[in-house]
Write a structure and sequence with these properties.
Length: about 240
Amino acid sequence: MIVIRPSWRPWAAAVALLLLCALLLLPAAGLPIGAPAWWPTPVVVIDPGHGGYDPGVETDSGISEKDITLQISQALAASLRTRGYTVLLTRTDDRDYALPGQRGREAKRTDLDARIALAEAHRAVAFISIHCNSSPEATRGGAETFFNPSLAGSKALAQAIQTEVRKIPGMSLREAHDGSAYYLLQHLTMPAVIVEAGYLLIPSDRAKLVNSAYQRQVADAVATGLTHFLNNWAGAS
Ligand SMILES: [Zn+2]
């Protein structure tokens, strides 16, 4: 007679499956700060403002905000990757996400929704949108960071970034500001900020914004601020 004994293998397989499920499900609750080395690296989403049909600010000399935001974003991505982060950019070339036939506000909303969806799908630990300020009335330049006070972590992240940005030599000193009117900051659920890297319509700032050395300085300052934020912010708003 053949006796069929219960094998250990199904149990081992079940335990392995449970462990795998736990591993896959845990990040859904948010990546822990100070996680062990084997933990999946946190995903940071960088959003180069504008693109495609939408150039952002344009100067008389033919400079488009969308080009500068992409250059700074790529420098920021490089800086963050050397620090061990997984970085996703909402665009890596000159494009937008509006649908054919859409115009104006509708096109802008579809474009922004696609960028938001990317960050949400990857459960990003932070979202940083890079822009250039366009105020024609401003007489003083300087980079500044905007947050939504209703969004957990947004203000702390903005202040951490602004603290570092202010250390750039020659920087006009500005504070982090309430940016709760921005669509992006209203609709994202992770700590999110908008960094205006300078005033494109102020000549002294414009000269800096097109300069790759300044672009890297801003990128490194933002990366340092984000790192401090992620090391210190444990989920409290
Ligand atoms: Zn912009």
